[in-house]
Design brief:
With 161 residues, the chain is α/β, with parallel strands linked by helices. The chain is built from three helices and six strands; from the N terminus they run E-H-E-H-E-E-H-E-E. A six-stranded mixed sheet has the order 2-1-3-4-5-6, with helices on one face. It starts with a strand and ends in a 26-residue tail after the last strand. InterPro entries: DUF5615.
Length: 161
């Protein structure tokens, strides 16, 4: 697995990934992609089989009530995964590292995020990091970007009589 660290995150995360055994990981700043629009990043991410690590998760996966006009992973049938570090406002470099290490710990040594999203966020009341992993797209045989709720035949509406 190789991680591409988004420009909104600390440069150090690439080294954290390398030290964890993900030797081909890089920060997009070091790959000459600073300032690229999300759709341009997606072309490279998909072509080169990167697992993106970002803080701007709304731009890449559509949560309920997302304001994003074009979530990049919507409609992508096969991808190497997405890691969303949902850092609080004012997060420091050390927070970036802590969140990313929590993601790496969840993945383990042979982690595979193919068609999955892994999200990390701070549960402030209890002051701990929570990690959630889920399929995206959600293991449906059919996936329609215009209708993200489209599903396999089991969930499809019955044919007209």
């Amino acid at each position: 697995m190789k991680f591409l660290i988004d420009e909104c995150l600390a440069l150090d995360l690439a080294q954290v990934a390398v030290e964890a055994g993900h030797l081909e990981s890089a920060h997009l700043t070091h790959r000459g992609m600073t300032g690229w629009k999300d759709h341009m990043l997606m072309e490279r991410i998909l072509a080169e089989d990167w697992t993106l690590v970002t803080r701007n998760s709304d731009d890449f996966r559509p949560p309920e009530g997302s304001n994003s006009n074009a979530p990049c992973y919507l409609g992508i049938e096969l991808h190497a995964g997405l890691v969303c570090l949902n850092l609080p406002n004012g997060a420091l470099r050390g927070d970036h590292i802590d969140f990313f290490r929590a993601a790496l710990d969840d993945l383990g040594e042979d982690g595979d995020l193919t068609n999955q999203i892994l999200e990390v966020w701070l549960v402030e009341v209890q002051d701990f990091l929570e990690v959630e992993r889920y399929d995206f797209p959600a293991n449906h045989a059919l996936f329609d970007a215009a209708n993200p709720q489209a599903a396999d035949e089991e969930d499809a509406p019955p044919p007209a009589a």
